[in-house]
User: What shape does this take?
Amino acid sequence: MSGSRLGAHLSAAGGVWRAAEAAPAATCDALQLFLRAPGRWAAGPSPADEVERFTRAVAAAGLDRHCFAHAPYLLNLAAEDSSLRERSCRVLVEELQRAGRLGLAGVVLHPGSAGVGGDRGVAAGRCRDALGVVVEQAGSGAARVLVEGAAGAGGQVGVTPAELAALVAGCPRERVGLCLDLAHLWAAGYDLRGDGWERLLEEVGEAWGQPVPDLWHGNDTPSDLGSRRDRHTTPGAGQLGEEFFRRFLADERVAAAPLVLEIPPGDDNQRVREALARLRCWLP
Ligand SMILES: [Zn+2]
Assistant: This one.
């Protein structure tokens, strides 16, 4: 198969290894999962054999180096409230360390938000300082942080590749990376169907010194260009559309990074299977 490794965010309910075990039947060549419920601060108990079970399932599925975690949505490293910020840092340190033990290739993080009426520049500074501390505290065995570009709603920081690079300026380069969501980019005003595609890759190259992000979130979206509304749909079913995805998949630069879908997986991951089959049939 040519092109990217294509996969999806799968459920880890019942244990993180469940997501890896489900990946082959869901036809995922790349995987994303939550290490804890995304709307909760506390992690559930981890069984003593978690790492062993997970790494065995990953090896069996051929997913080595292509598994990623997504940090909980509650975290806000840019928050003005210092207790929320510190709590966010503590949880992120835990996530990075656990992801490191599991051998994951990165933990995707929404950088955070200035809040209503907050100053985005000041908030970005708080996030940058917090990330520097978190990455150092997490230690050398921890997984990389992949900062994910936001759609730009409600004072969110980290929309453009340059803004995202500034957030990790206080971290060693090998400990950080970039995740871009096609739906967020569209909502943030990158006309990916037009000249926004080349502009985006130029910006990634300039700010990050690499041709493409480390991970794609390959979502389509019903939201309007520049609307800042973060909504996901199956590739081809939204405003990006089949024609965009065909061009995207045919771009040789794209294949350097894995892609995961973040869509409702359906019963038995049926919707994931269908969406991935469609993407593969659009590969050149
Ligand atoms: Zn995300």
Q: What stands out?
A: The chain has a mean pLDDT of 96.
